[in-house]
Amino acid sequence: MNSTSYIKSWIMAARPKTLSAAIVPIIAASGLVQAKGYLVEWWIVVFALLSSFCIQIGTNFVNDAMDFKKGADTNERLGPKRVTQQGLFTFKQVMTMATIFFVIAIALGIPLVIRGGFPIVIIGLVSVLMGYAYTSGPYPLAYKGLGDLFVILFFGLVAVGGMYYLLTGEYDISVFILGLQIGFLSTILIAINNLRDIHTDVLVNKKTLAVRLGLTGGRIWICFLILAPFLTGYYWLFQKQFALYVAPVFSLPIGILIMKKILRTEPSEAYNKFLAMSAGYGMLFSILFYIGCLIR
Predict the structure, then answer these.
(1) Using one digit for the tens of pLDDT, what is the confidence trace for 216-245?
(2) 3-state class of 84 per DSSP?
(3) Domain spans of the chain, in order of start
(4) What's the pLDDT score for residue 174?
(5) I want to staple 251 with a disulfide (CB 3.0 to 4.6 A). Which of 93, 97, 271, 284 is the partner?
(6) Cβ of 254: how many Cβ atoms within 10 Å?
(7) DSSP string for residues in 94-152
(8) What backbone torsions phi and psi does residue 28 show, to the nearest 5 degrees?
(9) How wide is the angle at C-alpha 99 spanned by C-alphas 193 and 64, nearest 5°?
(10) What pTM was computed for the model?
(11) What is the model's pLDDT at position 6?
């Protein structure tokens, strides 16, 4: 393998299209900080974003290696090919690279710990441990149907709450609500991914939530996740923060389109396009929320 192919293979393993899940909560939380009248210290945002990227990339590497080891990734896989499954890198190489990215994430988090103190230590360490535990360890979350809950917690409540706390030193119910909204949006990706793989996952006893709910239940769950941010967002209307609700509504047509396609399409490679659409949906929602925070 030449150097160009080597680098491209590692980039593929990092799954760059999934990294929007790390960006979305930071954009939204930064907007809420400004809506509350605080100044955003952008150096904190940069370090938090880079650390989040590294944690997610490390998690993706662990997922790549462990799914191959457990037999979940085979030549019949409908999703994008994985480097361990293709034999581009060994299990040990991929797991080693995962560890390197987790270590980098911890190093990038040091300035954040200095700023935010012990709560940030806990958030950082638990996030790294859960990155391993998602598909590895004695109780792999993704194989027990807990992957969706993991995403809601860590890419929603923890990511938004941690970012807001770093920038303000505070936490309140509005941060929790925003964390739920972002958590639901981020979970759409894993829900579509798992519904796509429902038939192959059941063969290797990978009991994702899609496998547990079945095809119809999995579709209903995705539809709920698409609409849930707006149901939860009624909070902003009750608080008379109308722009924080109305601005993100302009992203809803993309969500409705995803719903229609999921309901009309059997699990197949076509779902890979729906994954890209859902990433764009979450990104647009967060950007519009940020704009709403500026014009409220």
Answers:
(1) 999 999 999 999 999 999 999 999 999 999
(2) helix
(3) 23-295
(4) 97
(5) 284
(6) 18
(7) HHHHHHHHHHHHHHHHHHHHHHH-HHHHHHHHHHHHHHHHTTSSSS-GGGTT-HHHHHH
(8) -65, -45
(9) 25
(10) 0.91
(11) 80
Q: What is the pLDDT of residue 164?
A: 96
Question: Residues 293, 174: contact at Cβ < 8 Å?
Answer: no
Low-confidence stretches of the chain (pLDDT < 50) are none
Give the span between the Cα atoms of 245 and 68, in whole angstroms.
Answer: 42
Say which residues have a Cβ less than 8 Å from residue 60's Cβ, sequence separation at least 6: 13, 14, 15, 18
Quick: pLDDT tens for 185-206: 999 999 999 999 998 888 888 8
Pick the closest to residue 145 from 192, 191, 199, 200 (CA basis): 191
Number of residues assigned to the chain: 296
Instruction: Supply the pLDDT for residue 177.
Output: 97
Gap between the Cα atoms of 77 and 236, Å rounded: 42
- Rounded to 10 deg, the angle between the 209-232 and 242-249 helix axes is 130
